[in-house]
Amino acid sequence: MSNRVLLGILLVLLGIAFILNDYFGIFSGFSAWWPILVILIGVIQIVRRSASLVTSLAIIAAGAVFLVRNLGLIPGEIVFPIILILAGCWFIFSRLTGNHKNTGEDRLNHFVMFTGLKTKNHARNFTGGSVAAVFGGADIDLRDAQLSEQGAELELTVVFGGIDVFIPEDWRMQVTGTPLFGGWEDKTHYVRKDGADGPVLKIHCLALFGGAEVKN
Question: Any bridge partners for residue 121, and if so which?
Fold first, then answer.
C-alpha cells in the first residue's frame, strides 16, 4: 500500500471519528487528537526518506508534545519549555546550526520551529535538500545558485507555517505534493536560456495548515 493511500485512509477514519464524536458523543474530547496529523507527517518523512532523520524526529516529537498536552497527561504550562528543549536538541545534533543569511552549500537542510529563516544560496552545483517549517516560516533564495546538470529535488514540509522559495527564471521546475488543509502555489515565469532546455528542479510539498510559494 502506498503512503498516499495509507494517508488517505487515515484521514478518512479521522474525519469519521470527528463526525461520530460531534453528533453522538462517542469519542469524548476527540478533537484533542489533531496532533496525530503532525506525528503522521514525521512518520511519512521517515518512511519516504524525504527529509533528514533529525528533522522527521523533531516533527514527531512536537506532535507528541501537543498530543499528550491535549489529553491532559502533562500540564499546559510545561509545553513551551519542552518545545524549547526539542529545538535545542535539534540544533545540537543537526548539521545546521542557526539561521544562515548566505550559504554556498549544494544541499539544504533547514528546520525552523516557532521562528523564521531567511537564507540566500549561491551554490555552484545545487542538488536540492529539505526545508521544514513548523509554526514558523522560511524564505529560501536560490536566484544566485546554479542548478546541478543532473537536476535537483527539494522537499518542503509546512506545518502551521509558510515557505517561500525564489528561483531564477531560467530554471525548469516541477511541483508535486500532498496538501492537508494547506497548499502550494507556483508563481514562476520560465524563460528558456540559450534556446535549450536545462535540468529540472523537482519540488515536493507537504502542507498541513500552511502553504508554500515558488516564485522568481
Answer: 103
Task: Encode pLDDT of 72-123 as tens digits.
Answer: 777 766 766 766 676 666 556 554 434 556 678 899 988 887 777 889 999 9
Here the cell at position 83 is 518545545
